[in-house]
Amino acid sequence: MFTGIVEELGEVVAVEHQGDSARFRLRGPLVTEDAGHGDSIAVNGVCLTVVTTADGEFTADVMAETLDRSSLGALGAGARVNLERPMKLGGRLGGHLVQGHVDGTGTITGRTPGEHWETVRISLPARLSRYVVDKGSITVDGVSLTVVEAGDDWFTVSLIPTTLEMTTLGIKKTGDPVNLEVDVLAKYTERLLGHVTATERLLNAGGRA
Questions:
Q1: Which stretch of DSSP H or E encloses residue 54?
Q2: Which terminal residue of the chain, N or C, has fewer Cβ atoms less than 10 Å from its own Cβ?
Q3: What does the pLDDT look like over 7-39, one tens digit per residue?
């Protein structure tokens, strides 16, 4: 489990393609200082399992499912990435609950600079729009953000100077893809309410739950 508070701006050192999968080697001296084989590190919001660590770098295997559902497949050597270690139980929850399980990808469609911040508009797959609400939480490339406005297939966020300086969102351009993870609590709520409704229909029809 993560919080969406990026710890380090890392870098892709190399990508070794292996058929429908790939092995990434990434540089992140901070996130690897206490990481070992089998640990998790979020890369642009995608939870990856550490295979090896050495000299401030780590490797991770990325399967076809992850490459298909996220923007990691478009990364090459030299690309900057957002890195975060899992949260510790009992620690502060700085952002919101993030699983590192990408729900889909969006595209930056516009950037509007402000005096001390920047408003970014991002496209949203229609199937995810019901989970995104004004002033709600969303994770963009692993960064926990508050939604300013939400449309049917888009939303906007405001980025403070710290976010612009310490994450890849400061260097992303219009047209660039981003990984999106919606609030898991909203998905669970929808599932539970759907189950209750289905049970009520069954009981009203004289069946058994």
A1: strand 46-54
A2: C
A3: 999 999 999 998 889 999 999 999 999 999 999
Cross-strand bridge partners of residue 107: 177
Cα four-point dihedral sign 162, 122, 182, 115: positive
Q: What span, in angstroms and rounded, lies between the C-alpha atoms of 141 and 6?
A: 10
Residue 141 near residue 44, CB atoms below 8 Å: yes
Q: Cα(33)–Cα(55) distance, rounded to whole angstroms?
A: 9
Q: Residue 133 burial (CB < 10 Å; 0-12/13-18/19+)?
A: middle
Quote the DSSP letter at residue 124: -
Containing 127, the helix (H) or strand (E) segment is: none
Position 21: which residue type?
S
Residue 201 tokens, joined: 């229909």
